[in-house]
């Protein structure tokens, strides 16, 4: 019983700490899909982030109850803690399943969306607009094209442009770069698709593993709470 009390107190403080981790992951996913909303048609892709925020809010009273029960056992508090742990387990399993599923699903959607932006983007070698969606992505991620700069060569042939790429493909340290293919070393080698996938999947996998670890801790808390409940029988039924 003393070990169960100590473990429950420790897990209560851990729940408060993991609430901050869940807030970080949820905000990260929500902001990412907000910044790249023009690449995704579905608005529900940020759902794992909102579930993570809901989990963080539920973790705060759960941690407080766990600490309180470890000091003074109360049948009402023990029952409430069990309900909160069950609610958290449902939230986290849903969030983990959605995060893993979206990480796999969005890969093909990103490729088609980026390909459409590249092939529909009209630019000139002498004057780069620099304010379109694809330009913003290339500057922010320091990438060029979908897979590499050759994607712009295919697009330039459809627009009857000379062989060049937008200036947003240039590396930051080359201030005099104008997208000339005669200086390929001044262009970003990596395509935007891989960087976007890595960024998206990193955020989703962060939420996934947070939920898995937190679910294990909640099962330990439920077992510890069950041990304490076993040592405190229902007093209202003793008369029977």
UniProtKB/TrEMBL annotation:
Lineage start: Eukaryota, Metazoa, Chordata, Craniata, Vertebrata
Bilayer topology annotation: Multi-pass membrane protein
Key words, A-Z: Membrane, Transmembrane, Transmembrane helix
Keyword Transmembrane helix: yes
One GO CC term on file: plasma membrane
Transmembrane segments: 7-33, 45-69, 81-102, 203-228
Subcellular location: Membrane
Record's protein name: TSN3 protein
Gene from which the chain derives: Tspan3_1
């Amino acid at each position: 019983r003393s070990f169960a009390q100590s473990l429950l107190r420790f897990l209560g403080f851990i729940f408060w700490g993991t609430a901050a981790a869940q807030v970080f992951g949820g905000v990260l996913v929500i902001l990412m899909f907000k910044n790249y909303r023009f690449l995704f048609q579905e608005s529900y892709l940020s759902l794992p982030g909102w579930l993570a925020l809901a989990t963080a809010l539920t973790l705060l009273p759960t941690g407080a109850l766990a600490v309180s029960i470890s000091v003074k056992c109360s049948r009402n508090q023990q029952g409430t803690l069990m309900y909160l742990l069950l609610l958290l387990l449902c939230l986290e399993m849903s969030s983990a399943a959605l995060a893993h599923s979206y990480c796999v699903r969005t890969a093909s959607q990103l490729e088609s969306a980026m390909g459409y932006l590249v092939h529909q983007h009209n630019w000139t070698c002498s004057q780069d607009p620099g304010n379109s969606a694809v330009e913003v992505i290339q500057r922010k991620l320091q990438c060029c094209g979908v897979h590499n700069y050759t994607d712009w060569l295919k697009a330039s042939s459809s627009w009857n442009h000379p062989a060049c790429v937008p200036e947003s493909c240039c590396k930051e340290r080359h201030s005099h770069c104008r997208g000339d293919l005669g200086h390929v070393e001044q262009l970003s080698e990596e395509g935007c698709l891989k960087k976007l996938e890595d960024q998206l999947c990193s955020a989703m996998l962060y939420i996934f593993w947070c939920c898995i670890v937190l679910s294990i801790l909640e099962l330990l808390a439920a077992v510890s709470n069950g041990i304490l409940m076993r040592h405190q029988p229902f007093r209202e039924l003793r008369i029977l």
